[in-house]
Amino acid sequence: MGKRIVIVGGGAAGASAAARARRLDPEAEIVMLDKGLYISHAPCGIPYYIGGVVKEAQDLAIYTPEEFAKERKIVVKINAEVYDIDLKSQVVYAKEGNDITKYQWDTLIIATGAKPITLPVEGHDLNGILTLRLPHEAPRLREEVEKASTVAVVGGGYIGLEVTEALRNLGKKILLFEMMPHVLPTTFDEDMAKLIHDELTRNGVELHLNEKVVGFKGINGHVSKVITEKGEYNVDKVIMGVGVRPDVDLAVKAGVKLGETGAVWVNEYMETSVPNVYAAGDVAETWSLITGKRMYIALAPPANKMGQVAGANAVKGRFLKFPGVLGTAVTKVFSLYVARTGLTERQAREEGFKPVSASIKARTTAHYYPGGVQVSIKMTMDESSGRVLGVQIIGPDKIVAGYIDIAAALIGKGAVIDDFFFADLSYSPPTAPIWHPLITAARVLSKGKY
Predict the structure, then answer these.
(1) What is the pLDDT of residue 1?
(2) What is each CA distance from 433 to 47, 127, 169, 425, 427, in whole angstroms?
(3) What is the 3-state secondary structure (H, E, C) of the chain?
(4) Fewer Cβ neighbours under 10 Å: the N or C end of the chain?
């Protein structure tokens, strides 16, 4: 009989861990348990389902439980909520309907993900205050917002902006509240965020920046008002987008150490502090490729890769290492694509670097070739070492994602400004100007060296 592996959570990290473990060990007995209805699911797709771009909620899952079980030869249990872990006996206990089932493990992988942050303010538990997390909840969400005419979105992060666009496209009046001076406060600098503010306003979003939500009021148990430090606003529904926190309840029961971020501490092998227990994805903390410091970042690409590392090491021992992250991300805000990687200028300063930045506007094609658009790029480097620390790009074309990926690949390898300037990037008039926008940004940032 092969090794027994139990994976708690069937999202990005859990499903990746299961698939990788199976590929490396055809004999292992692998059980994946998820409390929801879908596995290998994509919470990132929920705003697009609400807005009608994605037609069916089940399309947000890559595999059905049946397909995954059959193709990968994995025991998949949905509607199975793991509520306790016995480390001594190496058993997990799950509620499956009215039954309690126990699963024995040699290796345990905790991939319980994250849960939405709720504001501990008066009225936070009123009906009509909605959060986005699991795809099987999406149809109810869509039903709720379809009836509304005025919706408050609390939080100007990725989810807040994506759901704002989705709801505006459905013709809803949107009030967007962000307690910081600008949207995407932890991932963009204020000068770049202003371009996003203009786009939101142009599309009829009522923007409330620097305005903290302090409570909600309701009529007959249903939310009817948002109360902020500056006033009260009548609304039909509220969508909370103030971020997520790691779902560590089960991990704490397993006795694993939490890191300084509040997420599960793991090493580069995704091992927790407890032998034979791994953690991966949004439940686990990671570290910055630039500073080496511990950080918490709930994004799908790292979650998938952390799952791969945990799954491989669960069957092979210390087989794969996870290197860390840059926090590379891209989203769409109406007609703009908004992308970033590495540190913002403000973060770089806080981390003790001496940041200098250059901001440029550049075309995406040769000046004479039709169809090109203008993109805005901000590049930040450390003045002492010349190392590029971060890039932010905003523009009305998907090519923005391609640019940020080039930047991420270079920054992840410790590139200095010369590496950016001399990067051998492709050119043809329909695809780029002779001076690629990233190379132009490096040229400006070099302050006359090139």
Answers:
(1) 63
(2) 34, 53, 34, 11, 7
(3) CCCEEEEECCCHHHHHHHHHHHHHCCCCEEEEECCCCCCCECHHHHHHHHCCCCCCHHHHECCCHHHHHHHHCCEEECCEEEEEEECCCCEEEEEECCEEEEEECCEEEECCCEEECCCCCECCCCECEEECCCHHHHHHHHHHHHCCCEEEEECCCHHHHHHHHHHHHCCCEEEEEECCCCCCCCCCCHHHHHHHHHHHHHCCCEEEECCCEEEEEEECCEEEEEEECCCEEECCEEEECCCEEECCHHHHHCCCCECCCCCECCCCCCECCCCCEEECHHHECEEECCCCCEECCCCHHHHHHHHHHHHHHHHHCCCCCCCCECCCEEEEECCEEEEEEECCHHHHHHCCCCEEEEEEEEECCCCCCCCCCEEEEEEEEECCCCEEEEEEEEECCCHHHHHHHHHHHHHHCCCEHHHHHCCCCCCCCCCCCCCCHHHHHHHHHCCCCC
(4) N
Could you read off the pLDDT of 39-58 as tens digits, one per residue?
Answer: 887 788 889 988 889 888 88
Query: Of residues 138 and 333, which shows the higher confidence score?
Result: 333
Asked whether the predicted pLDDT for residue 408 surpasses 80, the reply is: yes
Does the pLDDT at position 126 exceed 90? yes
Q: Which of 37, 44, 180, 444 is catalytic?
A: 44
User: Has 116 been annotated as catalytic?
Assistant: no
Q: What is the pLDDT of residues 218-265, one digit of tens each?
A: 999 999 999 999 999 999 999 999 999 999 999 999 999 999 999 999
Cα separation, 47 vs 34, in Å, equals 22
Beta carbons within 10 angstroms of residue 363's beta carbon: 17
Q: What number of other Cβ atoms are within 10 A of residue 276's Cβ?
A: 15
d(CA 327, CA 286): 10
One-letter identity of residue 160: G
Instruction: Tell me the C-alpha distance between 127 and 116, whole Å.
Output: 16
Closest to 118 measured CA to CA, from 240, 210, 282: 240
Instruction: Summarize the confidence of residues 167-174 as an average pLDDT.
Output: 96
Cβ-contact 350, 186 below 8 angstroms: no
- How high is the mean pLDDT of the chain? 95
CB 315 within 8 A of CB 21: yes
